[in-house]
Amino acid sequence: MDSDRAPRRLWTTWIAGWTGMLVLALANGTLRALVVQPAIGEEAARRVATAVLLAALTGYVWWLHRRRPIPTARQAWAVGLTWTGLTLAFEFGWGGLVEGLPLSTMLADYDVTAGRIWVLVPIWTAAVPAVVRRLQRLRSADRVGPR
User: Which keywords has UniProt assigned to this entry (predicted)?
Assistant: First the structure.
């Protein structure tokens, strides 16, 4: 019975954890718009905000994984891909339905040929649980000693 609940607890934690990531992203965007962009301009501010969000996301997943480790690499990738799907659904849903932005405007953030690097966020969101899981396992193995 307990083994049946473990995957559910894992998913409950990590899906709820996505809301923490959303809060980080919204705070980052607010900081970009109110502080960074007026100081350095829109394009540079977008790049800085992307880098800051990638670092914050990594730290957040590191913290969350220490509290509720993901047992397998496959589950870690499933969590990452689920987070990415939720993120894109939120981003395009909010942008299109609430802000009334056309799809072309929203997709412009993903145009690396125009110097936009936002595409790194969904890519890293998909990968970061698996990467953090692997790094934490390697780190704990190093503390134990040679294998």
Answer: Membrane, Transmembrane, Transmembrane helix
